[in-house]
Structure formats: structure tokens, C-alpha cells
Amino acid sequence: MEEKNYEAIIEAILFTMGDSVELDRIADAIELDKKETKEIIERMREHYESEDIGVRIIELDGAYQMCTKPEMYEYLIRIAKQPKKRVLTDVLLETLSIIAYKQPVTKSEIEKIRGVSSDHAVSKLVEYNLVQELGRLDAPGRPLLFGTTEEFLRSFGVQSIDELPVLSPVQIEEFKQEAEAEMKVNVDI
Question: What pLDDT, on the 0 to 100 scale, is given for residue 189?
Fold first, then answer.
């Protein structure tokens, strides 16, 4: 194997492992002795430091780690501070609405209202920190109870669930008629 290939292998090892890797482990992996391995790593370190590259290799108590150069931290912080774009699909919004208005509520209650399985939707809402497990219902099977989080309140600009809009009886009747019409269309198909 050429020395250039050794460098590529060491680079791949350090990049993939993330944490520091002991010199003897690297040497064993590339089947060279520790002295030769250390020489290759030192040349790599010099190359990374002298070039306009965003990463470097550091030595930590006989082990090596690939990490970001300190002068790049500012850019990493900018990326980390950017809000993650979460997409709330119609299914997620529908499920979230049911949870917000009916909480505490079980998945089976959500599914009864929606008419379809809601496992994925509830899992996504938990992942987005808009919904949380509130405990278990004291009933056979002890199903989980779900409710909204503080993040939900922040995201929707309300201080408490009491501030959610109240549906008028006319709106409720319209929604029922729409749901029944959709169910009829789906049955006819």
C-alpha cells in the first residue's frame, strides 16, 4: 500500500470514529508499527495546519482525533442557532388539534376520532416536542395519555390551553358534515 493510501485510511478512521483513537489501534488497523504510524499522522497534522482546511488532527494523551479548527466555531454556531424547519402536515395538525382539545387523551381515542392509525403522527409530534406523555390511564392495558407541551404553547403563541380558540356549535356541525361527506366518498371508492 502506498503512503498516500495510509493517510486516506487514517483520515477515514478519525473522521468516522469521531472520538479520539489510540495510536496502537490505528497502527493495528493499517498494519504498520506505531513509529511509522505516528510519522504519517504527524505529517497529516502539519498538512491540515498549513492548508486552508476547516479541520485538524489533535493529539490527546497518545490518541488522535479529527476536530474543527477553533476559527471555524463562529460558523458552526450560526448553523446550530438556525431553527430547524419542521413541517406540520395536515395529518400532524389534525392529530395535534385532537390532542390539544381532548387532552389528556390516549392513542386509541385519537384513532377513534381520526378513523385511522395515529402511531406515526403521535411519534412525530413527540419528536417535535409539541406533545408529551402525561402518564397512563387507569384502565386495562394502561394506555399512555398524551398532552401538549410548553413548546406547543410557545409555537402557537398562547400562554395556556384555555386560550385556544373555542369552536362554535355551527363550526362543529360543519366539521361533522364535512367528515361524513369524506367518509361517504371513501366508502364509495
Answer: 56
**How many separate helices (H) and strands (E) can be counted in the chain?**
9, 5
Facing residues of 146 across strands?
A: 105, 133
Give the 3-state DSSP-derived string for 126-166, with helices as H, strands as E and coil as C: HHCCCEEEEEECCCCCCCEEEEECHHHHHHHCCCCHHHCCC
Angle CA 132–158–160, to nearest 5: 60
Q: Residue 9 and residue 105: Cα distance in Å, rounded?
A: 53
171 Cα distance to chain centroid: 36
Residue 53 above 50 pLDDT?
yes
pTM for the model stands at: 0.51
For cell 472520538, the residue is 19
Q: Phi first, then psi: give them for residue 147, nearest 5 degrees.
A: -150, 175
